[in-house]
Design goal:
With 207 residues, the protein is mainly α. The protein has one domain (2-206). The chain is built from ten helices and no strands. Helix 1 runs antiparallel to helix 7, helix 2 packs antiparallel against helix 10 and helix 5 runs antiparallel to helix 10 (185-206). The chain starts with a helix and ends with a helix. 40% of the residues are buried.
Length: 207
């Protein structure tokens, strides 16, 4: 039982750790709106990871029902990336016209950040493909146990959440050394990254 749980924690960290659009969003929300906003983004991603972990733990039947929809799911994900990237670029353009002291660095709509980040993570079909390989490494004998799916979900969520807590902590340390007027450039960097990533996803569908 402990082996499954620890293995799931490692899987959660391994899935969350690679730098991607979710990591960029988590950093951006933390730098612009504070630690609570960054945690909301991270917990949204951790929830999505746990759901995909559950799907993978429940067996190949459920996975086979999801994979045929990989292309439309990928299109939705690319569209969300472009929309969010465009919104960040627009926010950058708007704030460039304001003084640094007027820049809003607070956001109370943490539930929106949570939901949007979870939705964006769920629209990445490669996440569940990665889970198939990682969970298979735990061994069929362990996965088939009655309590295994619950341990996997809990462990994946904990591992992913630990990574996002670490990333938010790093961002908060960095924020202390940044002048307020430079925080708006997080919108520019995040917006460009998200748009480029979204365009790449669309290109991969037609290439």
């Amino acid at each position: 039982m402990l082996t499954i749980f620890i293995g799931a924690i490692i899987i959660g960290i391994a899935i969350a750790a690679p730098v991607g659009p979710i990591g960029v969003l988590c950093l951006r929300h933390t730098l612009r709106f504070g630690g609570q906003a960054g945690l909301a983004a991270g917990m949204g991603a951790a929830t999505a990871d746990a759901l995909y972990g559950l799907a993978a733990a429940l067996g190949l039947t459920l996975i086979s029902q999801i994979l045929p929809y990989a292309t439309p799911i990928k299109m939705v994900g690319a569209s969300l990336l472009l929309m969010m990237g465009g919104r960040n670029l627009y926010s950058f353009a708007q704030h460039k016209r304001q003084k640094a002291a007027d820049i809003n660095t607070r956001s109370r709509k943490f539930w929106r950040i949570y939901v949007k980040t979870m939705a964006l993570t769920l629209t990445n079909p490669m996440t569940i493909v990665s889970f198939i390989g990682f969970i298979a490494a735990l061994g069929a004998d362990h996965i088939e146990k009655l309590y295994a799916p619950y341990l996997i979900v809990g462990g994946v969520f904990m591992g992913s959440a630990l990574w996002w807590l670490f990333l938010v902590g790093v961002a908060l340390k960095l924020k202390k050394h940044l002048d307020m007027k430079y925080l708006i450039y997080t919108d520019l960097i995040a917006g460009l990254f998200l748009c480029i990533y979204g365009i790449y996803l669309f290109y991969s569908l037609v290439a």
